[in-house]
Write a structure and sequence with these properties.
Elements lengths: L5 E7 L3 H11 L3 E2 L8 E2 L4 E7 H10 L4 E5 H7 L4 E6 L9 E8 L14 E4 L2 H10 L5 E4 L14 E6 L3 H5 L2 E10 L1 E5 L7 H20 L2 E9 L3 H5 L9 E4 L5 E9 H13 L3 E7 L6
Parallel strand pairs: 1-4, 1-5, 8-9, 8-10
Antiparallel strand pairs: 2-3, 5-12, 6-12, 7-10, 7-11, 13-15, 13-16, 14-15
């Protein structure tokens, strides 16, 4: 084994599938996540361990792991003394932040946080929930929920504080949101001592750079086409390029090859326009990484 090893923690649970997929796009193949908490990775300088996101901060603080990927919510709730190196804007279903919300049954008399005085609140995010109530001057009973939190009101709890991306699960359980308690984003955290090690710091920077490049590429596609020289200006006027398009002459000097990167959201609208403007042989292709 090589002398230099970076111990990286990956989140077990809701972020697991998306994280391993991003690592694949970043260039790292992780195998065995369904069978073991110590999966294989095709990089001899990485040692990977799967850890519940809730526990990641503690293990990184203790030095069991040099770094890890988890939610900023769990870092805050654990109070772990770690360094947040950077944010990675993705969640289980989307590329955005998630919310921890205060929710109650649709027919509840609880309308605002002030109405929670003396009530029972179920949540996994206990410490953040207590801080939220304290800031609002409310005394209530906060109980740790071991799961299925949406099913607890009204018999087992008067209200819940639960994480959501779309709110669909809450609505399905006849719950309504009355306040946002906190926002959370996926973060790359590091042990402070590990950051003083030259190799580990550089390896973290490399992994993070590639992960962020994979995230950027999630929203983009490559587009290449053949364009007659006399139609180039018209075609370029349609392209909202990431940078400047790459333009190269073809063997037929009256034609040019144009290659660019654009947002996936606009590509279906722009391809017919490019075709009408004179472009031919239009090819759309996926991207793994885009590094600025």
């Amino acid at each position: 084994m090589p002398k230099n090893i970076l111990k990286l923690g990956l989140p077990k649970g809701s972020l697991e599938k998306k994280t391993t997929e991003l690592l694949r796009k970043a260039g790292f193949t992780v195998k065995g996540t369904e069978r073991t908490y110590y999966p294989d990775v095709d990089d001899d300088e990485l040692d990977i361990m799967l850890v519940r996101a809730q526990e990641m901060g503690r293990y990184v603080e203790q030095g069991v792991l040099d770094c890890g990927i988890t939610g900023s919510d769990w870092v805050a709730d654990s109070g772990a003394d770690v360094k947040t190196v950077d944010e990675l804007l993705y969640a289980k279903q989307s590329l955005k932040k998630v919310r921890w919300v205060l929710a109650v049954p649709n027919d509840s008399k609880i309308k605002t946080v002030k109405d929670l005085k003396g009530k029972r609140i179920a949540t996994e995010l206990v410490n953040v929930a207590k801080d939220y109530l304290k800031k609002n001057g409310v005394e209530a009973d906060v109980e740790f929920s071991w799961g299925a939190t949406e099913a607890k009101p009204p018999e087992l709890a008067d209200a819940i504080i639960e994480i959501t991306e779309t709110g669909s699960s809450l609505r399905a359980n006849n719950l309504k949101i009355i306040d946002t308690v906190a926002e959370s984003v996926t973060v790359f955290i590091a042990n402070k001592k590990a950051l003083t090690d030259g190799f580990k710091k550089r390896k973290m920077e490399n992994v993070l750079m590639l992960l962020k490049g994979a995230l950027i590429a999630e929203k983009l596609v490559g587009l290449k086409m053949n364009v007659p020289k006399n139609k180039l200006k018209e075609v370029l006027g349609l392209l909202p390029a990431l940078q400047k398009p790459t333009i190269a002459e073809l063997s037929d000097k009256s034609w040019l090859d144009v290659d660019t990167i654009i947002s996936e959201k606009v590509v279906r609208e722009i391809i017919p326009q490019l075709k009408r403007a004179g472009a031919e042989g239009i090819v759309e292709y996926p991207l793994n990484k885009v590094i600025y």
